[in-house]
Amino acid sequence: MATIYYDNDADPRALAGKTIAVIGYGSQGHAHAQNLRDSGCEVVIGLAAGSKSWAVAERDGFDVREVADAARNADIVVILVPDPKHRAVYETIASSLGRGKTIVVAHAFSVHFKEIEASPDIDVVLIAPKAPGHRMRELFVEGKGVPALVAVHQDASGHAKRTALAYARAVGSTRAGVIETTFAEEVETDLFGEQAVLCGGISELVKAGFETLVDAGYQPEIAYFECLNEMKLIVDLMYEGGLSYMRYSVSDTAEYGDYVSGKRVIDERVRQTMRDILAEVRDGSFAKRWIAEARNGAPELLATRAKERDSQIERVGRSLRAMMPWLPKREFGPEAAAATQQREPAEVV
Predict the structure, then answer these.
(1) Can you name the residues that pair with 22 across neighbouring β-strands?
(2) What amino acid positions are annotated as catalytic residues?
(3) Positive or negative CA dihedral for 94, 98, 104, 107?
(4) Dihedral angle, C-alpha 160, 64, 48, 88, nearest 10 °
(5) What's the rounded Cα separation, in Å, for the pair 331 and 318?
(6) Residue 328: pLDDT band by 50, 70, 90 thresholds?
(7) pLDDT tens-digit series, residues 50-67
(8) How many CA atoms lie within 13 A of 72 on its CB side?
């Protein structure tokens, strides 16, 4: 059984008198920083010169400094920038880190795959909230919290775990529960889940179903509703009550089809592919590929992103979502720029 920690297991005195430098002020950074401040912690924000987030953090009332300066006088440095940038951040702050200091990460990627190889006289811990930053912040303000994972990679001080739990409490996660794990378990399960199920698996399953129906002569709009739009209904039921509640909530016909056809789609060949993906995550092959891609300007990522955004299922989806006024307008990328240009004349009028 997992070991789970709550408010009573965390001693806030572990952070007393300490300055926390939050490096990055994006989705996770803003939530960590604001929750920490509301918990009474002394927080400074570290950003690169010219960062678009600088003015935002200042507007939110924070002392904002360049990364090295923020880390220099901090006791705890929290690295909340994208994974490929961790090494550069660490190289910038390494000279400021010494005995008694702590590095906190929200994802174990850079530490586990040795993008960061911290000095042996500092503590390195993980606090990984299991929700996007905006949701983490919303729940904290409501007096609640999102669950998180906690792990200790390096315990030079002998009380790294005490610091980590105090930090988890300060960002609100011990209100919900913090599960103990390891750096290896956190990053390997996270990468596998993203690739095999949550992002890669679901995306390809949806596209394959859509294309099968369209290739068989069915209308793309109907295929979109059946293979993508209704996915939310099913996932919401799973989220609320697990697989059994989903099966309880759908029709008997749908439940029976689940049992007789699901294992034909996810067959032994697919399961072996999943094992292969997990092996590539565990041996570092994926990490090396991604770091090399990112440092080369991400040409494969950018080309694939553009191709996927122009696929038939995406074009059909954009058209159908325009018929659903209850949906929030998620404008981004080229469409966002086009929408802004289209709105400008109306705003002038």
Answers:
(1) 45, 78
(2) 107
(3) positive
(4) -10
(5) 10
(6) confident
(7) 999 999 999 999 999 999
(8) 6
